[in-house]
Amino acid sequence: MVAHKVRRLCVGLVWLCLVLLTTDASARNYPLFVVYTTKPVKVVKRWNPLALYLSKNIGETFKVTPLLYDDFIREVETGQPALVVTNLLNYGALKEKAGLIPIAVPAWNVAGQGIGEYGAVIFARKGSGIGAPADLTGKVVMVPSRYSLAALVGLKTLNDLGIKVTDLALIKSVKTHENVVFGVVNGAADAGIVRTGTLEEMAEHKAVNLDDIVVINRQFDAFPYMHSTVLYPEWLLCATGSLPAGIVESIKKTLASMDVTHEVSLQMGLWGWKTLEEGTLPSVAPLFDIQKMVP
């Protein structure tokens, strides 16, 4: 009797294994990895319309998988077939290990304009005597952190203009962009570097008066926010190198057809997508060089 039960159990386990193997092979489920910081449900809500539409349109199953930063890096580094939403710095760090292939940049619908890029604002208090990059020599500059793309882009811009990191008296990291603004306005630092849009958003909420701010090396172009630097893609949708090439091409074609009136664009607040080819993204190597010099 015992032998019979054991035999039935073994047969059942073999059958279960076969079912699982068959299901995995036929379902072709792929994660869409995204980093979250506080609430994973927000990440799922933001990106799920895209995952559902790609699943329906391409015939594969994509599932939004929110991960904390360290888990995100670990999972992407395995090189498993997946889609990845990330920023330019993470792309640069993971490109070789995961064979990341850039697919497209999402442009968000901001007041009827497609915005898919951002940069940095280098600023000081009005009346501080600081108005040009050269004025920052020997000064204290505040940044969110050494891992902030905006901070690195701003410091690289200063470096390109002849003001090296070593020319500054001190670089203070204060965790958030808002803390940088408050620190500069309140005199805790001579100047600050934040991402584009920060000053305008804080001004809208009456947290800062833009008349009290001087933007250093201000650029004037069609970009709607004050900025001191060139602009970089804000988010990248990438594929790991092991995701089948045919699927990657299908995703590109699908995204290219999404304009501001598309159902997914309306759900996500998108203007559309700018599809990419390898080699078209700006190099992040100079930013990593700057990062090594930031305490």
Automatic annotation (TrEMBL):
PANTHER family: ALIPHATIC SULFONATES-BINDING PROTEIN-RELATED, TAURINE-BINDING PERIPLASMIC PROTEIN
Name used for this protein in its record: ABC-type phosphate/phosphonate transport system, substrate-binding protein
Family named by the database record: Belongs to the bacterial solute-binding protein SsuA/TauA family.
Pfam families (alphabetical): Phosphonate-bd
Domain of life: Bacteria
SUPFAM superfamilies: Periplasmic binding protein-like II
Compartment(s): Periplasm
Keywords per UniProt: Signal
GO cellular component: periplasmic space
